[in-house]
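The records we work with from here on pair a chain with its fold. Taken together, the tokens spell out the fold as the letters spell out the chain. To see the layout at work, look at the sequence and tokens printed below.
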Amino acid sequence: MKTINRRRLLAGAGGLAVVAAGGFAFSRGRISTEALAEGRERLAMPPLLDTTGTGRLDLTAMAGETSFGGGAPSYTFGYNQAYLGPTIRMRNGPLAARVQNALDYPVTVHWHGLIVPGEHDGGPHSPIRPGGLWSPDMEIGQQAGTPFYHTHVHGQTAAQVYRGLAGVIHVDDGRDDDRGLPSAYGVDDLTLVLQDRRFDERGRMIYGASMMDVMHGFTGDTMLVNGQVYGVASVPRSIVRLRLVNGSNARIYTLFANDGRPLHLAATDGGYLSEPLALDTLRLGPGERAELLVDFTSGKPMTLMSQEDPNQGPGGMMGQIGDMIGSLVSRSFPVLPLMVDETMPARITALPQHLADPLPDLSGPVARTRRFSLDMGMGGMMGRMMGGGGMMGGMAINGRSFAMNRIDLEVKRGTVERWRVSSSMLSHPFHVHGASYRVVSENGAAPRPESRGWKDTVVVPMGGETELLVRFTQPAGADAPYMFHCHILEHEDAGMMGQFTVA
């Protein structure tokens, strides 16, 4: 059995090949985990910012320089650091947040997955001006889970998130030991932000969305985990918890183990399932989160892989066309090699049997049924890209592009509504702020296993319909409404978004 040095992995080429131009590219084909790991540096976890003892949170949006994979430094953004942000650990109760903006551009901090009032949600109506300060005194009150935070300035979300303004939250109820779950941060409990990025010939990260990039979302040719290229995770010989966050602008991952071992789903966006659920694959759209339990007690390494999405993979629109005519061959690429380190403490050696009480039944009377069509029109989009300005026929929901001064829906607090969301072109991850929902059906059938827990983001399939039961528990007024939108960030910025109040 091959193990790795705990301090450092040797540096080398492995599975993500360096292309002739000097950039990075996805590699494909069968490559062993040992070969992928050879020569790569150990994956680092985001710094841990623990608020559980103080009830205080301090963040600063800032600029910096980051070198990816040994390339030339890239101009990047982050919270409290040059790229991305710390993992914020919080518990239910009061949380006094202070968010400062040291950038030359307005930013926000949207607490993606926190169920807080609209005035604390951090959406487009809560910009922090350059040099400004936002101080929401929040009350956290929800199930343990793995929310996400990121900037949400309308028209700038895609570029700002791509440059690094995003991070992860752990809502911790202190009961993971009772559940038998791995909980040692960075040891057997790994926080993994998945992103794909593009680089120029000098290895600098680049973002410049063409019309086609806006149409199907900006995807990259290089895999980053926690902002690191070519990282390898070291894990103990035990059950290991992977907290996965899709921080990509547009890429939909279909994750699986290269050796076929099961991935046990423990939690979705909004918290734990009642018991772990064994999966062969896990679909994860932008903005979605999932917690997996993976068994490494055999000591064997594993590579987390992803299939290329035919709608939004490196093949872009041509990939979609190829799929439509039945000629696209399924391909896959490595996301993260994981190697067993025998020197690390092995604490949890058996899968837990029970995680939470059964999910509540929301199938009773609903206050209202609504329909949402996620609309794309190439003609309208082309006119916008060429300076026409109008969005008629472009990115929209129910035929209307987003407008900051228009409230699209008014819902009643304490109610449950049935939302039917459809898409005619591409697959769209549909996110709702300030609410949690249960997926009732996907294309008239039972939801996918990873869609069966509490959710706030779900992939609506191309040409299909997804039915949701949405629960509203927090207030939001017209001055700080909640959003509902596609979480392909280029689509959101281009108008596939609406807003609603809860009163």
